[in-house]
Amino acid sequence: MNAVSKPGRLIIISGPSGAGKSTVVKTLLQRSDLPLELSVSATTRSPRAGEVDGRDYYFLTQAEFARRRLAGEFLECKEVFGRGDWYGTLRSVVGSGLERGKWLILEIDVQGALSIIDSENPITIFVHPGSMEALETRLRSRGTEEEAAIQRRLEVAREEMAQRHRYRHEVINDDLDETVENMCKLLKQYQNQREIDPCSKN
To answer: Which of 1, 33, 36, 40 is most buried, taking the most CB atoms under 10 A from its CB?
Structure first.
């Protein structure tokens, strides 16, 4: 394995639907002076308007995704919401980013995160709005989903919130600027440390 002068780090950011993860990650990428890079996931769903293969996702056929999954090429993958579409993180994408010294962000769900936390020693951050009540208010304020869909998201969110103790860090996102500032400071702690004991206290 080729050594790099400034080895990359793997960062996992998870949280329930409605927690604002995507906005936090987008803003973090803009404001942090660390060599952050968002990992591009693979999916079997069709591209949406404006999406570009290799930038937004790696768009794979069902057959190609299945072949790669059976070959062990995914760090984690799952079928999402039972719609028949698969999403996953390719080992080659992560490996390439880390070899280039990037601090690679995986914005993945709790199930995917828990499947690799113990084996990859990532920096793990769980983002949430502070309470289930706050989360429900956010989901309903969107006004884009039927009641059944909202209840399903809340059910999944309760399960995910129950796992937040498995993450090294927990960040409450009730103010975007403050949240991103706190995450910048948090990640800075790791800048001069090649490895950190996941059981250590900050």
So the answer is: 36
